Amino acid sequence: MGKQQRGAHIVWDWNGTLLHDIDAVIGATNASFLEIGLEPITLERYRELYCVPVPLFYKRLMGRLPTEDEWLVMDAVFHKHYGTRVDACGLVEGAAELLALRQAEGRTQSLLSLAPHEHLVPLVRRHGIAERFVRIDGRTDASHAGKAERMVRHLGELAGVAAEQVVVIGDAVDDARAAAHVGARAVLYTGGSHSRASLEVAGVPVVDSLDEAVETAERLVA
């Protein structure tokens, strides 16, 4: 890339940003809560409380951090229920066209997700967009820490892309933290796991559509 780089390099988030899976997430969350004895949660309350690392989300619900054994059960039960729902999820409306247009314009983009890598890549391929990205990285370890150190590794694999060219587009405050950690910028999207109010605490632009997210990203690096 180097001198050929045009405009922003966008690092996309997957769940709740490109993949419209919030209904599947709420359904899986409540199914798992039923199994582990927690009260069901509404979408609005979920968006108020959800955070990364995810055990802190459970602390907000339970008043304490889950033990390691409890967390392993909670995580496994959630993913069991989410796995039965995710195949029915579509991309956010217009996302495929937006990714194709940026690629056709010679602009670059990559994908960094906390979803397990072995599940992420086949799903991205199934939606027909894998070729839009110069790199796709999912989680390859058991850690549920946020994206900051993963972002360091991700950008390290993107030859010729400087941090000041990078804009992270995601639906969580953790995406903004990861961007700041590497000296990049961020735009946060309201269609996923966080409410607008909880996103605005990050101090970065907050938008209601992916088109607006991309327009904002290009302005940030202009």
UniProtKB/TrEMBL annotation:
It comes from the Bacteria. Signal peptide: none annotated. Coiled coil: none annotated. Pfam families: Hydrolase. InterPro entries: HAD-like_hydrolase_sf (IPR050155), HAD-like_sf (IPR036412), HAD_sf (IPR023214), PGP-like_dom2 (IPR023198). SUPFAM superfamilies: HAD-like (SSF56784). This is Phosphatase. It comes from Streptomyces lasiicapitis.
